[in-house]
Amino acid sequence: MTAGSAPMSAPIPELRAALLAWFDAAGRDLPWRLGSEGRRDPYRVWVAEILLQQTQVARGLHYYDRFLEAFPTVEALADAPVEAVLKAWEGCGYYARARNLHRAAQLIAADGFPTDYGGWLALPGVGPYTAAAVASLAHGEARAVNDGNVRRVLSRLYGEARSTDAWVQARADALLSPDRPGAWNEAVMDLGATVCTPRAPRCPECPLAAHCAARASGTPTAFPAPKVRTAARAVQAVALLIGDDRQAVLERREGQLLGGLMGLPMQAVGPDGSVSEALKTVCERLGATPGELLGQVSHSMTHRQITLHVYAATSGLPRQAVATAALSKLDHKALGLLQARQQSLFAAPLTEGSSV
DNA sequence: AAGTCGGGGCA
DNA sequence: TGCCCAGACTT
To answer: Ranges for the HhH-GPD domain (predicted)?
Structure first.
C-alpha cells in the first residue's frame, strides 16, 4: 500500500469518469479508429494491433497506410503471396508478425472474422493483448488490455514499482469501464503514450494526477522498475555481394532471425574469429570466387551487435532485382556500402554498368 | 520464467 | 548509450 502522505486512490467510478472525460476531449485521432466506438472495423483494428506490437504509434502510422493500400481487405491479404506481405512490412521489424498476419488472413478468409476474445486469441500472432484490443474496439466486449502503456499508468497510479503481469491485468480488469470498454482501453493507452510517458511524464496535464501514488512520491519515473534485459552479443559474419546494389544474388533466409526475408549470402564467423575461413565457406557453398573487401557494416539488433564483413564476389548464379525483394536493414546497409564506395572512387559522374 | 525476435525515437 | 515501444511465441 501507499505511504501515509500518498493519496488514497479514488473510487473506481471516479477514476473512470476522470479519464474518460479527458479522453473525450484529448484522445488521439488515429486512422484505425474509424467507425463508432466499440464498433470499429475488425480488419483495420486487427492489422493496426499487429503492426503496433513493440512499435511506437508515430512509426506505425507510416506502415499502416502503406499496408492497407496494398491489402485493403482481408481477402486481398489472404490471396497475396507472402513475399508481397513481407515487402510491405520491410523495415518494420519482427517479421514473424507479417508471416502470422498472412496465415491468419487465410484462416479468416475461409472461416470469417472471429467475433469474440477467444476466437481472436486462437489466430496465429494474436495473444492476450491483441485479442482484448480487437474484442473491445471492434465488438464492444468487456476485455481489458494489458500493454506497456497500461503497465506504466497503473504501476504509477497505485505506486507499484514491481508490477507483475498478473497484477497489472487484475487492476486493469477492475478498472475497465463496463459501459465503454473500447473507449476505456483507448483512453489508458492514449494517456500512457501522450501524458504518462516513460521518461518525462506531463503530470500537470494528467486527469489522474490527484490520485496518483507515483506523482505523490515525487519520482514518478521510478514506476515501474526497469525490466531486466539480456545483453546483446557481439557477432561477426561475412556477406557476399555478387552483382551490384540493384541486381544481386539473394538468398531467402530461413529460421527465426529475419526469416522469410531475402538477403545477401552470409556466413557467421566461427568462435575462432577467422573471417577468411567464413569467406571460404560461403564461397564454396555458392561456387563463387571471392573478390575484394568492400568494407564493414555494423548493425545492432535486439540481442545482437553484428559486424558484417562485405566482400565482392563473382558467380554464375542468377541475380535478382533488389528493389522488389524484402530486405532487412542489415542488407540495405551492406548494399549501401558499394554505392558509397563507388562515389568515393569516381569523382566524375559515374557511367552506367561500370560495376564489378 | 526466461530467451528470442527489428528497428527507431528519445533523454 | 540505454531504455522503451498498443507483444507473441518457443523452450
So the answer is: 51-194
Phi, psi (degrees; rounded to nearest 5) at A355: -80, 165
Query: What's the pLDDT score for residue A154?
Result: 98
Which residues of A have a catalytic role annotated?
Answer: 49
The integer distance in angstroms from the CA atom of A47 to the C1' atom of B1 is 29
Buried b / exposed e over A173-189, threshold 16 CB at 10 Å, is eebbbeebbbbbbbbbb
A167 CB closer than 7 A to any strand C atom: no
Q: What pTM value is reported for the model? A: 0.93
- A12-222 and A233-345: identical CATH topology: no
Sequence-distant (6+) residues with CB within 8 A of A344 are none
* Residue A241, strand partner residues: A312
3-state secondary structure of A221: helix
Cell of A133: 484490443
Handedness of CA A135, A141, A147, A153 (dihedral sign): positive
* Predicted pLDDT at A348: 39
Answer for A233: CB within 7 Å of strand C.
no
Three-state secondary structure call for residue A18: helix
Q: State whether the beta carbon of A56 lies below 7 angstroms from any atom of strand B.
A: yes
A201 touches strand C (CB under 7 A): no
Distance separating alpha carbons of residues A128 and A179, to the nearest angstrom: 21
Whole-number Å distance, CA A317 to C1' C4?
A: 43
- Domain at A233-345: CATH architecture: Alpha-Beta Complex (3.90)
CATH fold of A12-222: Endonuclease III; domain 1 (1.10.340)
Q: Which of residues 283-312 of A touch strand B (CB under 7 A)?
A: 299, 301-304
Contact status, residue A44 vs residue A32, Cβ threshold 8 Å: yes
Domain parsing of chain A, residue ranges: 12-222, 233-345
pLDDT of residue A148: 98
